[in-house]
Amino acid sequence: EHLVYTIQSGDKMGALRALLDRRDGASIIVFLKTKRRVKQLAKQLDSLDYPVGALQGNLSQSARERVMTDFRSGAASILVATNVAARGLDFEDIGQVINYDLPDSDQLFTHRVGRTGRMGRSGEAVTFITVDDERKWREIERGLGKKFTRRPWQSP
Fold this sequence. Notes:
It is a single chain. The protein is α/β, with parallel strands linked by helices and 156 residues long. It has one domain (2-152): P-loop containing nucleotide triphosphate hydrolases (Rossmann fold), CATH 3.40.50. 35% of the residues lie in helices and 21% in strands. The protein has five helices and seven strands. It has helices spanning 12-21, 35-47, 61-73, 106-113, 134-144, and strands at residues 2-6, 27-31, 52-55, 78-81, 94-99, 124-129, 150-152. The longest helix has 13 residues, at 35-47. The radius of gyration is 15 Å and the shape is globular.
C-alpha cells in the first residue's frame, strides 16, 4: 500500500512520530535527502527514545556494519537513511518505508519504496509532500506513469 500525504514542512516531525508510534515493532526505513538531515533526525529520534540507527555515506565500514547489525537484529528497528539504503542492501521484512524527504527521481522513488513488501510480505510506503515538493512530485508521477491518491495529513 502506498500513502501520499500533503503536509506542511513544520508538521513532518509530528507526523513521523505518529507513524512510528503505531509501528508494532515492525522495521521502518525513513529516507532523507542529505547526510546532515539524517544525522539531525536520528539524533532527535534518539533523544525521544526511539530505537534508531543512522545510515549515510560518511560512515566508516565498521560503523556501517554496526548500524546494519542493529537494524537487522531489531535493536534499532528504525533506520534513518540517505539513498545509500535504497539499493544494494538486502533487508528482509521491512514493514514500512517513509519518504520524509522526496527523492530526486522516479527511479530513486522506486528503489526506496521497493524496500518494503518484498517476497510476498505486506508493507506500506508513505510519502510526505510539501508545497515545495509539488513540481518534483509531478515529475515522479509522470516518470512512473502513475497518479497516486493524495490526502492531507490529519494528526491522529
